[in-house]
Write a structure and sequence with these properties.
This protein is α+β, with helices and mostly antiparallel strands. The chain has 9 helices and 8 strands. The protein has helices at 3-18, 67-85, 104-110, 114-117, 127-132, 137-145, 192-206, 216-233, 247-250, and strands spanning 24-31, 39-46, 60-65, 89-93, 99-102, 150-157, 163-172, 184-190. β4 (89-93) and β5 form a beta hairpin. It is elongated and about 120 Å long.
Length: 251
Amino acid sequence: VHPRDREAVRSGLRDLLNDPHRKQLGLSLRLAADGGDWRWHELQAHVPLRDRRGRARGLIATLADVSWRHTAEERERMSATLFQQATEGLAVIDAQWRVVEVNPAYCDILHAPREALVGRAATPLSLANLQRSGYQPAELQAALNDGRSWSGQLQAELDDGGQHVFAAKLSPVPELDAVSPRWRLLSLTDLGESIRQQDLLRRSLRFDAATGLPNRDEFMRRLQLALAAANRDGFKLVIGLIDLDDFARVN
């Protein structure tokens, strides 16, 4: 028995044998068979018969290797922690596109508490939002039925009327002996701030920061477009050049 579990086992067995009111014992302990790795076991013991003074006349005990269960529980705790701490919005949804569970980031992205989201249809995947983004529900369903993930960019209108752009990914949660997955994992990343920064960057490259007017590069780009249009459509394009005295002082 592992040194950290040894005293608990001794104490538990001692109490079971000596206490006439105690009938059974159940506890977990680590064992290393033949000097191998420590593996979790579950000990179940009970006293079937006692003498007149309450002393145990026998002990029936079973020892089961439950290391697989401890490993599964550790992975479950790890998965739960990752799910809760992830910075992207995560939601587990069922086959009817209803939300089963969400993480805090998903609530923040959709500006709604968990209680308002669980049990309801996943708003970003509504028919209106999918069609607004150029997708059809059948397209997503076909990918999931084939065991594949679907990803795309959603132009979504939320319940509060807010307009958002999401990078979305929908993945099936695999199950043993399941014809089609019961659960799907929806991940969302709000692209709004990224798009705004890109727009600001593109605008700063084309417009003067002080006046908001097109800069020299933008003027030349527009001029080339206008010349091409005039040549194509057969109209005259007139360009005027105006010289302003002492404009440097104004600037």
